[in-house]
Specification:
By secondary structure, the chain is mainly α. It folds into two domains: 1-161; 162-278. Helix content is 79%, strand content 0%. It has twelve helices and no strands. The chain has helices spanning 9-42, 47-77, 79-94, 96-112, 117-142, 145-154, 164-184, 189-215, 225-247, 253-277, 285-289, 293-316. Helix 1 (9-42) crosses helix 10 (253-277). The longest helix is centred in the first third of the chain and has 34 residues, at 9-42. The termini are far apart. The chain binds protoporphyrin IX containing FE. Protoporphyrin IX containing FE (HEM) is lined by residues 19, 22, 26, 29-30, 63-64, 67-68, 70-71, 74, 100, 128, 131-132, 135-136, 139, 142, 167, 171, 272.
Length: 328
């Protein structure tokens, strides 16, 4: 089925699925940090914000780890384009690493210090939005051969193409909705209603940003129309799920929102890929022939065992008794 045909089909499937997983975790990080910041400014004792602050460092770890898999598949699928865009953007692109480190520490600070909470969350939100912007830039720059030459000749590091802003806005809207979707599962009835507002508002922001892109001439490739309709149908079902959650917060609305939202995310990830399908280059023979399944299985098992050990250790550790002045 389009676009999963041709020599790199398996890599493309894995790319789309792992990218969608990455999107869920980083959405929780961006949406959660902004939510916790807004609540810290409005009032100090919000139960959702407290839960979110607790989970943020872990979720960032998951988001970064879940970014490695699509990164590897991306390099197999678009090796020349990805590395060229990296080199052209140079230090400006490299700035994502210190931004992530600063963001990571800011999340721990926001957990530990009431006094510095607002500043820490503000810094964290700035870092994560910067990283999202960077990925949007590099994604668009990869497809723009003319810009490589122009930027290199002018010594320019920032890809200031006009579709970066609306595309980033689509992502920020989608991130708010994904954050709300994940958070529904840990929320009580009254809290769920607030998350419904965030989820629906996120979709509204994304819709406005899509309209902005369409007004600038964006369109969907013919081959991706089926996936686009699937995404739209899933969004309609998701809307029913949000409505249901609002009316009966304890009912099955969150299940519908999660199922339909997942379908919409995967279908949209395929639509997102459509402009790059024509740019795919045949895999290098060395990459196509590379094996290593036994080594992969051994390292995967070792990784699973290490994670299981960590989860067991954390679960069996009694909670801290003395909270100290700085914690709330
Ligand atoms: C908080 C940190 C991060 C945020 C907020 C973030 C956000 C994003 C966003 C918004 C996109 C989509 C860009 C677009 O379609 O316009 C994206 C793509 C991607 N991200 Fe992340 N990301 C983060 C960290 C990472 C890390 C650490 C890695 C790698 C280890 C990574 C790997 C990827 C990959 C491979 C893609 C696909 C790029 C493409 O297809 O062109 N991300 N990320």
């Amino acid at each position: 089925m389009w676009p999963f045909t041709g020599p790199g089909a398996a890599w493309l499937v894995l790319y789309v699925l792992t990218f969608a997983l990455h999107a869920v975790f980083v959405s929780y990080v961006v949406g959660g940090t902004v939510y916790a910041l807004v609540q810290a400014v409005r009032k100090p004792d919000d139960a959702i914000a407290e839960r979110v602050r607790d989970r943020l460092p872990f979720m960032l770890g998951c988001g970064i780890t879940a970014g490695v898999a699509p990164l590897l598949f991306l390099q197999l699928l678009h090796q020349r384009r990805f590395y060229t865009a990296n080199l052209v953007a140079g230090p400006r692109w490299g700035a994502v690493v210190p931004a992530l480190i600063v963001g990571f520490y800011a999340l721990y600070l926001a957990k530990a210090s009431v006094r510095l909470r607002k500043v820490a969350l503000g810094v964290g939100a700035g870092c994560f939005v910067f990283v999202a912007w960077s990925w949007t830039e590099i994604h668009l720059l990869m497809e723009d051969d003319a810009a490589w030459r122009a930027m290199y000749a002018a010594g320019r590091r920032v890809y200031g193409e006009a579709s970066v802003a609306p595309r980033l806005l689509v992502w920020l809207g989608a991130m708010a909705t994904l954050f709300a979707t994940v958070s529904l599962w840990w929320a009580s009835g009254a809290e769920r209603r607030r998350l419904v507002v965030i989820g629906v508002a996120g979709r509204a922001v994304a819709a406005i940003a899509c309209a902005w892109l369409i007004a600038r001439g964006a369109s969907t490739e013919q081959g991706a129309h089926g996936w686009l309709y699937l995404a739209l149908a899933a969004l309609a079902v998701e809307a029913v799920g949000w409505g249901w959650t609002w009316v009966a917060p304890g009912g099955a609305g969150p299940l519908l929102v999660t199922g339909a939202g997942t379908a919409a995310l995967v279908a949209a990830a395929v639509v997102r890929e459509a402009p790059r399908i024509a740019l795919l280059e045949p895999p290098r023979p060395a990459a196509a022939e590379a094996g290593g399944l036994p080594l992969f299985v051994v390292t995967a098992l070792a990784g699973a065992a290490a994670i299981a050990w960590i989860v067991r250790t954390v679960a069996s550790t009694p909670p801290e008794s003395g909270d100290g002045d700085e914690r709330s």
